[in-house]
Amino acid sequence: MEARNQKARAMAQDFLLNETQYRLGFLEAEQSNPKTRSLGQTFLADPAKGVEMILSVDRDLVDVYAGILRGEAFARFCKLVADTLGRGNRIFLSGCGATGRLCIRLEASWERAVAEKHLSHLSGRVLSVMTGGDYAIIRSLESFEDYSALGGEQVRRLGIRKGDLLIGVTATAETTSILGTAMETLRCGGNVMMVVCTDPVSVTPRLERARLVFSHPNTDYIYIPCGGMAVTGSTRMQSSTVEQAVIAAALESVLVTYAQEQVRPEDFIQGMAALVDALGKPETVQKMADYLLLEKQLYDRGGYVTYFAHEYQLDIITDTTERSPTFSTPAFRPKGMEDQPMSWAFVKNPMLTTPAAWENCFCRNMRCLSWEREVYEKLGLRPDEIDKIPPIDNDALCGFQIGMEPMPERELEESLAVWVGMEAEVPAAFREAAKGYARQEVLVFPQVLESLVPSALHIWRHLAVKLIMNIISTGTMACMGRVQGNYMVYLNISNKKLIDRSIRIISDLCSISYEKACLALFDTVLWMEETGQTGYPAQKTMERLRQQL
Questions:
Q1: 243: pLDDT confidence band, cut at 50, 70 and 90?
Q2: 527: how many CB neighbours lie within 10 A of its CB?
Q3: Which of 19, 33, 197, 247 could bridge to 239 as Cys pair (CB 3.0-4.6 Å)?
Q4: CA distances to 25, 373, 507 from 504, in Å
Q5: pLDDT grade, residue 347 (50/70/90)?
């Protein structure tokens, strides 16, 4: 035990002294939202009240969104987009994790819109740059975000050049890989617009990587003061919603001018208000509450859910992928890896094969990474990190069979097939594909769709699905006890940001100092290794601390 204690102290001391750039408790997006301090308890007592509690935080976004779209920074943003496209340059949307997935969503929406409006010359002019490539849409590559050089290499290989615009999307204004894409853009003479939910003024004095980007004369930014997330630190929720809405408004405002049309900021503000109002109607709240209880009960019995979708498959994949790093549920399992645990939820398209389904999601060919080990070594990744990188090329992505191919391993005694959409019509292909499942459900929201404001990018219908799935997944996990207060306590410490967040959760919920929480966390990690314990370090640490009282 003494040897373990000494090693734990050394690990804690190393983190406290040498990783100050990842002590992020001061960031707005990492703060606990006072409206949801009792979120876990509320869902356990009354799921409908829990749904309303999350929606109360989403409702706060309407005024925030209005303030941004009426401001000077947004006007500069629209002009920058228009000028970039007008001179024949390209726009790159750079994100990591949740923001990377929203960038992929926006690129797909852009491609569909230019096709619908017969503006083929604008196709391929807006590109998403997801840290880790398209593979990361379905399997998080957490350590990748710690390397600025990796982000720079990605945009370099996409051919970014002078005059191009990079839109960096990061709730915390500090994500290392995204700042790397920005630095490479600035190096080659491009422009950068950062879209952030933390005031850069609070970040740049503390974090050198952020200062280098935000102080550059070719960098501008939009700061969206959306406050803490409904679940602390879960930027897949409110920040990624409002960031997506802001960028979509800028892209669509410029896009429609090429079709001799016009859309005003007030139209988008009305769209956001209509979206939240539609989701907040009592019948919609109750529908979400009833469904998430159904899913919770299925998981309690050891069952699995398989969502089916077509138009909204990408939106559902995004939420379902993010459940694994957020709540530590099993990640999506590719074909041929049956030794891995099966994901509790999966997403399929009953009408297309897997390669076609992926291209339907992206509205383009897949852009995965197929780099040699030497590239990662050159970029500075540690050997142990490189060893853990799975194949992440196009073939590897197609190993996740999101198409019509049968998956008998999911058709168990406790299995649920669910069609998810906004329209009332359910395709016959779903009925056929769902025959092997023990239970079939239809989760559609035509009453929400009827209330939404039209959009060339169809942004409101996609955000509606995003918010619905965010609420369902969060509520399900809260009803299973994986949320305490408004903290997600079942999380892995797969990167430095998550180590810091775990320490802060332990510190707050156990009422001890950050330093003591840090030591307790690393001691638990070593204890779990010694004893073969499974579970989640933050949760296990809190259990051990409470046993000592």
A1: very high
A2: 17
A3: 197
A4: 7, 35, 5
A5: very high
